[in-house]
């Protein structure tokens, strides 16, 4: 059996263990401590523009806290990109709110501005303005920031920028994670850098960071007594795991470089095949190419190639199944144009880890070439 090629596996730099040892040596085995502070500082320095980061137990927890901080309550409506991972949408349900799913446009595969505006107008006409918009930079490709921000601004609806897949991406030279009223990062094991599990909430306002940390640490009011005047959560990141994050931040730029290289390598070897399409980077967009995706000609081709790769012990996956197609979300309102259904039908995520060797990439390429007889 040939060795397994994973879709997107963790890639340590080697320095992470030093920070973990420091946590052990100083006995900061807790959801606070020097690594937590240092990790936040490194994220802030990377993002620039005076943003604050609060590191949390997951990206999902960050989205949940963002909704709470923006005042989303039971029965409120929240707009969410349909083509995404379910973690973008699940926290809407945690709050008892109602998701409204919006389809994608073809240039970035993200939130379609026209449908977004239509949904907002319809909601307002019914006397209920959506409380927030969850916009996603799918696979690291920035959404149409200018258009989406203008709509949000016009109707005065805050944006939760789900940048879980887009750390290291940028738009007009500004880093993803810094465009929304609140930004979200994920450090899950499959993401561009990882703490095994973790996330962050990004904000321009110090008070929002303080609120996030307060809610993430059981909402204990100031003072020595355990006084609680709001419901809290246990969402803070462990100081041990933050040590992994500190070591990972030091190699983030290299990781982005490797992922972009994977995409270019696949493209240069496969773009002669007429049945395959690679999403170009629109002008002024810089994608971290978290996952290298291809579109095939048909559902059949997609299924055949995933199967063929699996026989070669190569992990690949369809693109995210849109939320409006999910059994758990299918009865919620949605605004569709066919784009995300079509992407799901034809798209494949190829192995994309920053730790793949050229030989690994060539194994993937040769299996696909074999399928197309080229
Ligand atoms: C991974 C991911 C999340 C959730 O992050 P976790 O850290 O796994 O909770 C949210 N949104 C998107 C688009 C993701 O890919």
Walk me through the topology.
Blueprint: H1 16-25, H2 34-47, E1 52-56, H3 59-69, E2 77-81, H4 90-94, E3 98-102, H5 113-125, E4 132-136, H6 145-155, E5 159-162, E6 170-171, E7 174-175, E8 182-186, E9 199-203, H7 206-216, H8 239-249, H9 252-270, E10 285-286, E11 292-295, H10 299-311, E12 317-318, E13 334-335, H11 339-346, E14 347-350, H12 358-371
Parallel strand pairs: 2-3, 2-4, 3-13, 4-5, 5-8
Antiparallel strand pairs: 1-9, 6-7, 6-10, 8-9, 11-14, 12-14
Helix pairs in contact: 1-8, 2-8, 3-7, 5-6, 9-12, 10-12
Bound molecules: pyridoxal-5'-phosphate.
The site of pyridoxal-5'-phosphate has 14 residues, from α3.
The best one-word shape is globular
- Tally of DSSP helical segments: 12
Q: Architecture of the largest domain, CATH level 2? A: 3-Layer(aba) Sandwich
> In the CATH hierarchy, what is the superfamily of the largest domain?
Type I PLP-dependent aspartate aminotransferase-like (Major domain)
Class per helix and strand makeup? alpha/beta
Please indicate the count of domains: 2
Strand residue content: 5-15%
- Which ligands are bound? pyridoxal-5'-phosphate
- What Rg, in angstroms, do the CA atoms define? 21 Å
Straight-line N-to-C gap? 24 Å
| CATH fold-level assignment of the largest domain | Aspartate Aminotransferase, domain 2
Task: Assign the CATH class of the largest domain.
Answer: Alpha Beta
Task: Output the helix-strand order.
Answer: HHEHEHEHEHEEEEEHHHEEHEEHEH
By DSSP, the count of extended strands is: 14
Point out poorly predicted stretches. Answer: none
Mean pLDDT: 97
Strand order in space, largest sheet? 1-9-8-5-4-2-3-13
Keywords: Aminotransferase, Pyridoxal phosphate, Transferase
Family: Belongs to the DegT/DnrJ/EryC1 family.
GO molecular function: pyridoxal phosphate binding; transaminase activity
Active site: 191 (proton acceptor)
């Amino acid at each position: 059996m040939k060795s397994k090629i994973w879709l997107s596996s963790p890639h340590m730099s080697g320095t992470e263990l030093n920070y973990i040892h420091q946590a052990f040596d100083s006995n900061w085995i807790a959801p606070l401590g020097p690594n937590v502070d240092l990790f936040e500082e490194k994220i802030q320095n990377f993002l620039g523009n005076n943003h604050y980061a609060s590191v949390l137990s997951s990206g999902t927890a960050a989205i949940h806290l963002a909704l709470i901080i923006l005042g989303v309550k039971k029965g409120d409506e929240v707009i969410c990109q349909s083509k995404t991972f379910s973690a973008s949408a699940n926290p809407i349900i945690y709050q008892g709110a109602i998701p409204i799913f919006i389809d994608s446009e073809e240039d970035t595969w993200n939130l379609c501005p026209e449908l977004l505006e239509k949904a907002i107008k319809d909601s307002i006409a019914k006397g209920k303005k959506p409380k927030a918009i969850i916009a996603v930079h799918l696979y690291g490709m920035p959404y149409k920031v200018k258009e989406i921000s203008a709509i949000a601004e016009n109707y005065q609806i805050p944006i939760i920028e789900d940048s879980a897949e887009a750390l290291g991406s940028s738009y007009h030279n500004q880093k993803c994670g810094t465009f929304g009223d609140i930004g979200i990062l994920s450090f899950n094991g499959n993401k561009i850098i990882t703490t095994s599990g973790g996330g962050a909430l990004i904000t321009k306002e110090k008070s929002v960071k303080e609120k996030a940390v307060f809610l993430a640490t059981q909402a204990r009011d100031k003072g020595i007594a355990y006084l609680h005047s709001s419901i809290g959560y246990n969402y803070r990141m462990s100081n041990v795991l933050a040590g992994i994050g500190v070591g990972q931040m030091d190699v983030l730029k290299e990781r982005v470089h490797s992922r972009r290289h994977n995409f270019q390598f696949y493209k240069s070897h496969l773009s002669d095949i007429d049945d395959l399409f690679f999403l170009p980077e629109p002008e002024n967009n810089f994608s971290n190419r978290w996952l290298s995706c291809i579109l095939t000609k048909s559902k059949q081709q997609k299924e055949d190639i995933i199967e063929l790769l699996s026989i070669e012990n190569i992990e690949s996956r369809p693109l995210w199944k849109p939320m409006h197609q999910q059994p758990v979300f299918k009865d919620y309102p949605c605004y569709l144009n066919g784009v995300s259904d079509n992407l799901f039908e034809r798209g494949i995520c190829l192995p994309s880890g920053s730790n793949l060797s050229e030989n690994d990439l060539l194994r993937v390429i040769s299996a696909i070439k074999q399928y197309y007889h080229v």
